[in-house]
Design a protein that fits this description.
Chain lengths: 302, 464, 312
Amino acid sequence: MTTTAPAGKRTPPRKPKPAPTARGLSPLRALGMAVVWLFTALNVLVLYWLVAAAFKTPIEIFTKPFALPRTWFERGQPFRNLLYAWDNAGFGRAFLITVVLVAVASVVIVLLAAPAAYALTRLGVRGSGGLTNLFAIGMGIPFQTVVIPLFIGMAEFDLTNDLFGLFLIYVALSLPFTVFLLTGFFRSLPDELEEAAAIDGASPSRTFFTIMLPLARGGLITALILNAIGLWNETLLSIVFLNENANFTLARALFAFNSAASYQSEYGGLVAGVAIVVLPMLVLYLLLARRIITGLTLGAGK
Amino acid sequence: MRSTRLTALAAVSALLLAACGGGASGGGEDALALPGKDEYLAAPCPEVGTKPTTGGEFTYWSMWTKDEPQGQVLTKAMNCFTEKTGVKVDVQWLGRKLLTQNLAPALNTDDVPDLFDQDVSQVKAAIVAPGGTQTVEDVLDYKIGEGDKTVRDVLPRSVWDFPANKDADGKIFEIPYERIGNAWWFNKDLITDFTAPQSIDELFGLFDKAKENGMAAVSQDGDIDFYNAYFYTQIAERYVGAGGLEKAALDKTGQAWVADPNLAKAAEPVERLAKGGYLIDGWDAAKFPQVQQRWADGEAAYVFLGGWAPSETREYLAKQGGDKGITYATFQFPQPEGATHRVVEQLPLGFAVTKKAKNPEAAKAFIAYMMNKDILSGIATVADNLTSRPDLPTPESMTDIKAALDSDAEKTIFMDGLDALSGGKWVESVFYPLNNDLLKGKLTAQEFVRQLAAKQAEFWKTNG
Amino acid sequence: MSTATAPGRPPAPGAHLARKKRLFFPFFLPAVALYVLFLLVPTVATVVLGFTDWSGAGDTPEFTGLANYSELIASDAFRYSFLNTLLYIVVGGVGTFLLAFLFTMVLREMRGGKVVRAILFFPNIVAPIALGMFFGIILVYRPNRQGLANYLLESVGIDAVKFLAPENITWVVTGCLIWASSGFYITILMAAVDRIPPYLYEDSDIAGATPWQKFRHVTLPLTWDVVGVAGVLWTISAVKIFELVFVLAGPGTYSPPIRSWTLGVFVFDRSFGDQGAPAYGTACAAAVVMILLVSVLVVALRRLMRRDVIQY
């Protein structure tokens, strides 16, 4: 993977790994090492438990947490829990809805936020700093505080229990963070290229689309991924704004399934439901972990 | 690197696809199913008595999930209704919290269902109070598909005609299809020498005997506040009668709790239950329904629950993959010493129609169809609960509860309706916290009523 | 391209700047319009509704002044919610950052540090509701059939703990929060640490500095700004805690016991989770308290963290 331009500019030359220190381990460092490994092992364990339990019977889940799943395999129905969750929680439809909603919303968020962030950082308009802060303040407004007026207002326009309505809310409420993140990126871009483009006679909008956007590609992709993860997992708004099974997103369906499955002692299905929601993000994460982490740190570090 | 990741991705998606594409789910869990279940689900559809003239479709938001026994019965009912009338049913399986999480918010819009269900008490507090329902009194005269019989002919008056089922105009808003009572449950296979207790001391005698036999006496899912409230309210109602607790709770000064010494006396058995170590280890760190499952597994002798105990625990045992069932048996709280009222709690659960319903006629026709004996009997045979029609067969586990409900004892709603006071805020901030402390043995009976009085006075000052 | 400008001659810088400025509104307006419409206006509406009594459908908001606020102050549920939220922010935050600092000391020089970082970050991509359900299952206390956590404790000879008892639940949630969120802050802090020129560490190695001294005199001063930003991020996200508590501390269907509530749960319960008709006015008043809490804490944090930037 080639380093992105903004990252490339600031990354210090890679230093050789320090030779293992000859001195004995200091107590603090030993403690640190122990905690780090314990923590890491715990996370791996938890992940294993989650995946394994999705294939187990309730008894196996609680009495043999580390054993490999057996019973359902022996009965020739290894996917019984996943199927159960899939059928009974309506995950099939929810999965489709969530993929489309999250994908479209994330793209639209970036499409709206990128020009705004560009405008705030590189057009030299007076008052930009204040406006950027205005957006940053939006990050501090908890969703809970706007949910009631939003619900009543959206109801006026028949946009409750409506995926388009939820889409609008998702886009709008994700803008502060995304604009904030992208201003960091645009600010870090070198001035020279923009000036060169201007000298070549390119119009400002052309400069933006053909020079600056590609340069900020790393930031845009990061914004896209972070929004996708956030929206994939979003629960509160979908509980409030979606009423019908037919409209449920995955997280919403999981919330409903949680209480239903408890009544029915359906722990296998419950864990499988969790796995269905978590695993796609895990795959995305495995593929993109580096991108997520570098992007995040660039945004936050600035 | 990239290619191994892609391979991993492909493998995972193949796995998922295989999971989604596989055949029917379930299986291997039917060992403990009720005998009448398959027969009921396969039976031909009865005729519709009152056909809607409008046709088309209606929307139903359900308190059940598709897979629960009641969900299966309702699915059968809807399929039959569609088969016989051509009216389609758009059903949303929303679960128990549909009233406050789905329906109440939706009342702000025009996008409401035609039909929904929940217990009378919750529907009244959340939906009837803001004027969200229309009366279903006309349904009483709908034919149910058994000759000329109407709903009124098959439902006894006591099932629908009571104050908690009346809206602001004094009309009924719900037609019940299930009647829930509550009781102490035990497994006859485990407790063989059982005699029903006639006094609180005899009740504790049973508990002591269970402990001697190496079992916990009482199982209790302590994370559900209103389960914890059963003990005190059941006993107290027998001292003060139906409606007596509600009256005490509405006293602005709170002094009602200390003025009547019986209200403190009613807390004494609860204190004894708490301090005597009768409750199963871990009941206070519960994650519902794991403690009632421990009762089902035979770790505890008794559990106090509503009529849903058999259906929930039977499903649990089936999902464990075992083949050992429970022979369910029940008894009511004995009359405490000096108590003068015989009281039975009930909770009718039924259908209501929204005020803004676009297809009320079809929805009401469906309610009447639900009362047909060949449809409604599924609530007994499949879901193991009491139907609202006394002439239908009673599940064996429910015979004692039914006898109690049909007796001439005073009837009141569960917890004397305390949980509906002030939109649920009274129990939440006054009663539940103190009652939980009482059940944990942190308060004596006297402290309990005194603190109730103080807290309540404080509560009504700000919530009056 | 354009015939107006002669090839080879750049347009006057002033003209170009003006053209650039013309882009401002088309670029900026769509985002800001949505932002104002969906976030700022509703926030103002919430503040206004906080002074009214309103139960939604079929009811009109009635001005009641500060009645909602005095109701909040008198309400046990609200007191618990407020204190728990504060506890999660402060104790959870201190725990998370201590852990993150400890890790920065070790991870920099550790083999496989990148992989470890990726693994630690993992809980952050899991939906909070899934985390809550997951913890609910592994924290079960049930003799002979314990959840994963007690299974581990018992297998090393420690007595099982009643994690889900109401007296313990706030601490359990705090622990879960620290576990789930520390990866995020470790990642951010480590990125800042990675930007510190290595020679500073090499010099201190030569001078025989202990890890603590290196942390105290190199890492901390040079990452101070990032720590400040991370602290603000933590405060903002910790104020909203809802799903994790709702699912973990209760049966999942009904609201959990009030002892475990957060402000997020309070607002939800009053508007969508209660037994009876919604109390939108009270919920809005509590929401205003949330905003005030964030503002106060963020301002305080910024004051606390203020100092001169160290250039390197």
